Structures are given as structure tokens and as C-alpha cells.
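Late entry, written up from scratch paper. The run itself happened at the end of the previous shift, but nothing got recorded in the book at the time, so transcribing now.
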Amino acid sequence: MSSYKITLKSNLKHGTFYWVSTVTADSEEEAVTAAEHLFLEQINKAGEWDFSDYDAEKL
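Output as recorded:
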């Protein structure tokens, strides 16, 4: 098994969401699946987290 840093990207109606996580898996495909599962586990607990950083650009 190897460690993978996975970045998932979703283009939503009002913005783009990135999920970055580190997982251990036998292949890149398994690592992506594991990252998706971690995201689903965390999003179900959305009341327990908040945004801790931001970047703002004046347009």
C-alpha cells in the first residue's frame, strides 16, 4: 500500500468545491474511491466543521 494525496473537484451551480485528503491504498483508483468515502463521511457531519482559511480577490 502507498499513501496518496487526492484532490477531488466538483463544479457546482454557485462555485467550485475542492476536497483534499491523504489516504492509503493499493492503486490510484482505490485512493480516489477512499477519498470520496472520506468526503461523504465528513459532509454528513458538516455541523462539526467550518472554513478555516480563505483567499479573496477583488474583481
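The two ends are 45 Å apart (CA to CA).
(Scratch paper discarded after transcription.)
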